[in-house]
Structure formats: C-alpha cells, structure tokens
Design goal:
The protein is 48% helix and 0% strand. By secondary structure, it is mainly alpha-helical. It has a domain of 51 residues: Non-ribosomal Peptide Synthetase Peptidyl Carrier Protein, Chain A (Orthogonal Bundle), CATH 1.10.1200. Helix 1 packs across helix 2. The longest helix is centred in the middle third of the chain and has 15 residues. The radius of gyration is 15 Å and the shape is globular. The model has no long low-confidence stretch (mean pLDDT 88). InterPro entries: ACP-like_sf. This is Acyl carrier protein.
C-alpha cells in the first residue's frame, strides 16, 4: 500500500481558541473569566493537584506534552498559551 492510499491522521488543532475552549471546559468557567494574566493559583484557586490534572488533560487533548521543567513554570493562563501554542 503506498503512502497516498493511507488515511490522513487527524491532528488536534493547537490554536488559541481551541486551548481556551478546553481550558474553559476543564475548569467549568466561561471564557470571559480567562485572560492571559489570570493566575491559576491565586485567581482560580487551583492547588498543585488541580494544576497537574489540568495539565494532563490539556496534554492529552492537544497531544502535546510538556517537560517537567515547563510544567513547573506555569503560573498563568498566558503561560499555558506560551507552552501549548508554540
């Protein structure tokens, strides 16, 4: 079977809109409450476990996996955008 006969593999769209939709859905918050400056701990009251679960869900849904160092640097929604949308 040649490569052109193979079905296309669907890649998740890593766009700002898709990321914000997934984030809004995971946190059960409207999009208008999420801004690049929104802090995960202080503004959204997420603890360490909440953040780890959120990251795992985003990684799985977007099929992009952060290094431990990157994950440890995430403090805001803007940080999520920086790492997941590059």
């Amino acid at each position: 079977m040649n490569a052109s006969a193979l079905p296309a593999v669907s890649q998740p769209h890593r766009t700002a809109t898709n990321l914000m939709h997934k984030l809004s859905s995971e946190l059960r918050l409207p999009n208008n409450r999420l801004h690049s400056f929104t802090r995960l701990r202080e503004d959204l009251f997420l603890d360490t476990m909440d953040i780890e679960l959120l990251l795992a869900s985003l990684e799985s849904g977007l099929e992009y996996y952060l290094t431990e160092e990157e994950a440890n640097q995430i403090e805001t929604v803007g940080d999520l955008q920086h790492y997941f949308l590059r």
